[in-house]
Amino acid sequence: MTAYLQAVQYHLPSTVVTNEQLVEANPSWKPEDIYAKTGIRTRRYAAKEETAADLGFEAARALLTETGIDAASVDALLFCTQSPDYPLPTTACVLQQRLGLPTTTACFDYNLGCSGFTYGLWLARALILSESCRNVLLVLADTYSKYCAPADLATTSIFGDAGAAALLTSDKARGIARIGPTVLGTDGRGAQNLIVRAGGARTPPNPTPQDRCLFMNGPEIFAFTLTSVRSAIGTLLARTSLTWDQVDWFMFHQANGFMLEKLRSAMKIPESKMPIALEDVGNTVCATIPCSFGDRSTPAASAPARPASSPALASDTPGPSPWFNGEMRTTDLAPRRTSPALRCLSIRSIVSEVKSTSPTRTRT
User: For 337-350, how does the pLDDT look when each residue is reduced to its tens digit (9 = 90+)?
Assistant: First the structure.
């Protein structure tokens, strides 16, 4: 049995926050400096009463509706977030009821940041290859804006909110890409470099305002990323018997435009093979790669279909720790507008031609 990606969707909240608005609250900053250091001009923020589950729900509902997928055919729902509705119950169980999935659906949350999409593909693929499931709905969402201190340039200028959904299936006829092997890794020594200290059992009952906010040690994360990503990619290429030149598309977690440019330069990856797509949405944590699918537009779109790799950077290690998911093949990558709120692209499998379809995204 093989696992295929069938559909992708994402949803953005309606509130747009510009660099100019950030500068109004922090006069010592300059909009052009924020863009130069982050590659971001605007980001989306969830409303006060809007949660990560709400964003994920909208993405999943749109995916099910627009693809005509029968909710009764979903065997498992995996929800990735670091912004759950409650300490308990599991938010995935709440989403099961909201989405009208059958009570036979297996549901669970998993707590990961920027590596969440890759881990989700890995988990869903494992469930399908073990023949435990035929169809797995992967939902990812976070509202990091609620963790960011308004005066903290390191976090406020980077993070945005979003929800995303992807459906994985064992049905080759419905697949638009085959999910290949994955390289994962963890190094918990850097846990203090990206942390919200309040909200768990480790923190005293009355945490300080600082403990309630996201702390990020940007230099440590940046240094770890530059030293670790290339080796992880090399490990996966060796495992799949591919060379760097044979890979047509490297998709990284969209953490920070400056960081991605440094990575691209250090690894000598052509600009057309490594899209950077966070200018108008920011770093949406576990949803960045699904969001990037909708913004894909490079000269590689007209090139012959070749293997494409999807690396991401895990945020819950000492800075982003790389994972790398490969053996996908892409074609017709330029986004195709079908309405002001929708962009589409087509993907096909590395091992055989499969039916072309259009993963989509929506914005409010």
Answer: 222 222 222 222 22
